[in-house]
Amino acid sequence: MINADEIAGILKGQIASYKTGDNEAEIGTVIEVGDNIARVYGLESVQQSELVEFANGVQGIALNLEEDNVGVVIMGDDTDIKEGEQVRRTGRIVSVPVGPALLGRVVNPLGVPVDGKGPIETKKYRTIENGAPGVVQRQGVKQPLQTGIRAIDALIPIGKGQRELIIGDRGTGKTAIAIDTIINQKGRNVFCIYVAIGQKNSTVSSLRATLEKAGAMEYTTIVTVSSAEPAALKFIAPFAGCAMAEDMMYEGKDVLIIYDNLTQHAIAYREVSLLLRRPPGREAYPGDIFFLHSRLLERAAKLSDELGGGSITALPVIETQAGDVSAYIPTNLISITDGQIYLQSGLFFQGIRPAVDVGISVSRVGSSAQIKAMRTVAGPLKLDLAQYRELAAFAKLASDLDKNTQAQLTRGEKITEVLKQPQFQPQAVEDQVMVIFAATKGLLTDIPTPRLQEWVASFVSFVHEKQPQIAESIRSTSQLSDENTKALQAAISEFNKSFL
Ligand SMILES: Nc1ncnc2c1ncn2[C@@H]1O[C@H](COP(=O)(O)OP(=O)(O)OP(=O)(O)O)[C@@H](O)[C@H]1O
Ligand SMILES: [Mg+2]
């Protein structure tokens, strides 16, 4: 019989003589490959989300750490990767370059430039997955993030640090709202990141040209992964964009990030998960899809003053099928965000563009961030519109209407027309205030509705020329003083005389 001392002696001896081979845990072997997924044997000490490199230089992410193998998603072409080949650990969790060098650039989700403008000069990197700021590190949303779109800034205002969902069917103007919002940040010290997930390269390229023409690329980064690229790249894209945004937020800056769109992102994640043989749940999405999107959007924040007061405002975009907002991914995102901008194809085809359904769109935190002048003039707007919709449905049936009803209908019609806005023409908040003031005070009754768009444009330049102090005072004080209210009213009457 061997006694305990002897056993201990043998074990001690073995431990002492145990030498970790140089690469034992650093290099593994591909045992199976296909569909952009590789199963790798032997990477015992690899970390979750670590980058690994295949023999031909293609990179992958270790996503499934199992007992005897590691599931790696390949972020490139998998045709050159063969069973039996070596896989090397890099020791790095997936990270992307961050910092000012990224502004004006178009990069892929690994931070590799795809705009042909040379390498990105930065030494700063940030891991793509990071914890969200906690309660103490945040403060309330209290500054407006102006989209420049009247229907949104007046009725569904967005604040810095807020998460507002843009939701609608295909082709209802979701991207248009995002792009106008980016253009409107010019000269406002807000940096923008546009994450294009699963869009066509040609679409992204014309979008870049649009931003360039508007002078908006100077403060914008585009992170793009096209529909033809591996699902794994699409899956990390919003996290990569968010890491770039976080770097600026922690430097005390304000950032706007757009995820266009998270429907494509969810589909890519479903693909990756199914290929990794994770159990499917509702609509075949994996069980952690809610967690995926909530941990992404939780990273949007308004930081406390001690931390520099920076912010990330997130505008995730979601695509619906035939207006169905009760599908799995839309309901998840509705519950994660602080409000929704609903776009309706019915309105879009009636020519009401942006096709914002102001009846069901909400902003749960932004109204506290609206400037006072806007809050005052836009106050009656929602009620006016709600009454108008109710009356309009009813008026179709009624033959003769009393004066009061008629007046309400006219006002609703004028307001609806004034809230239409062409693309690429975001409007400063002080100008919005003047226009909405005219509409809600019933001062547009005599202007023929088809001429209202023209009225808006020429009225604004008229006031800027004749009474520049009105806009100036709204901009500097955020208020519409009694004196300026009178001046504005007079300006409108004077302008209307010449306009008609
Ligand atoms: N306010 C607007 N005025 C006039 N046209 C607009 C307006 N907004 C969008 N459009 C037009 O409507 C079309 C669809 O817009 P957009 O591409 O933004 O929609 P989308 O919802 O992002 O579409 P998709 O689902 O394909 O991504 C575009 O041709 C765009 O130019
Ligand atoms: Mg779009």
Write up this protein.
With 500 residues, the chain is α/β, with parallel strands linked by helices. It folds into 3 domains: 22-92, Elongation Factor Tu (Ef-tu), domain 3 (Beta Barrel), CATH 2.40.30.20; 96-370, P-loop containing nucleotide triphosphate hydrolases (Rossmann fold, 3-Layer(aba) Sandwich), CATH 3.40.50.300; 375-499, ATP synthase alpha/beta chain, C-terminal domain (Lysin). Helices cover 39% and strands 18% of the residues. The protein has 16 helices and 16 strands. The protein has helices at residues 4-17, 150-155, 174-184, 201-213, 231-249, 262-275, 289-297, 328-336, 345-350, 372-378, 381-395, 403-418, 429-440, 452-466, 468-477, 482-499, and strands at 27-34, 37-41, 50-54, 59-65, 70-74, 86-93, 95-97, 106-107, 125-127, 165-168, 190-199, 220-226, 254-260, 311-319, 339-343, 362-363. The strands form 3 sheets. Strands 8-12-11-13-14-10-15-16 form an 8-stranded mixed sheet, with helices on both faces. Helix 4 links the parallel strand 11 and strand 12 (220-226). The longest helix is centred in the middle third of the chain and has 19 residues, at 231-249. It is elongated. Residues 174-175, 260 line the site of magnesium ion.
